[in-house]
Structure formats: structure tokens, C-alpha cells
Automatic annotation (TrEMBL):
Signal peptide stretch: 1-22
UniProtKB keywords: Signal
Keyword Signal set for record: yes
Annotated region (Disordered), positions in chain: 166-196
Biased composition (Basic and acidic residues): 179-188
The name this protein goes by in its record: Apple domain-containing protein
Amino acid sequence: MKKSLMSLSAVFTLSFAALSFASEPTPKSKRPDSLCVLPSVPASVAKKSPNTRYPLGGIKAPAVSCHDNKGKHAAGYHLKLYVGKGTDWPDAVARLDYLHKPEELTAACWNACIEQKKSCSSGFAKANADRQKLCESQLQACKGVNDVKKNPADINSISKKYCKTAAPPFPQVSPAQKEPPDNDGHEDPPDDGGYF
């Protein structure tokens, strides 16, 4: 009986793993470890691929948060893109430090969107033209919702509200780094929590 349940569970898991991008579109919101806004799936994408949701394949963008270096914070660099050695994005090549301005928050979030697209294209969409298009659509949606010119109320509010001091409460340690594996023999689906 246990083997039957395990087989059924494996089939169920594999069925949904193949459609890891399927579900209802998530509403735009911030995730608790980033100042960037999560985009909604555009209507044009939802019409062509009705089961699409972001982040595609569970691949979140790197966090943008308050700077953790007091010296850089004192010099005016209140925002930081958390990529590079010691992060979930060790190979990312991007500007890390940003001034405390709405335009700089936009730039930091755009760089996070670009890093997310790189991972989406090389992982989720590898050798799949339709998925490559979805990665590009996600990039454009991510950049659009984090653009101070297109979304001034949200970006200005976030810029004013956060990062007045260094040593942020986030980004938090990724779940992969702080939770030991459950060793049940099954791969858990990515927990996107509706955030990127």
C-alpha cells in the first residue's frame, strides 16, 4: 500500500512539475525580502497561456533591500542588490550599490529583473522557444511595475518608507539555507508565496 501511495505521489508530483508555471496569476505585491514589486501576468500573456503565473519556474529575482554596509549607507548608498558571493546569485555581474532615490530603486529592481530573466532563460526555458518568450514577458512586466515613471505612487512610497538606516531586517536567509532537508524522498515544489 505504501509503495502504491508513493507511486501515486510521484506521478502527481511529476504531473505538476511539468506544469510548474501553471496556476492563477498572482497579484502584484512585494515579497518580504525585497523592495521590488512583483508583476502580475499581463493580459496578453494570460490570454495565450492562461495557466501562467510569476515567477516562472519558481525562479525569484534577487532581493533589493537596504544596504548592510554602514560606511556605504553613510555615503548615500542606502539600497543594495543582493547578488554575488554568498548569495543565491553567486555568478551575477551587476551594480550592487544604489543611492536613496526612486530612480535608483527602479535601476536596482531592473537589474534584479534582468538577473531573474537570465536564470529563467537558462533553467526554466532552456531549449524551449515558447518558454523563452514567457521569460521575456516576465522581464518586461517586472521592469514595468518597478518603473518610477510608470508606477510612481508605489515606487516613491517604497523609496520614502524604507532604508533610513543600514543593516536591514531583510533580505532574509533563503529557505534553502536555513531549513534542513526533510529527507522524505520527494522534491517539494518551489514556495513562491506569490512573490518574486
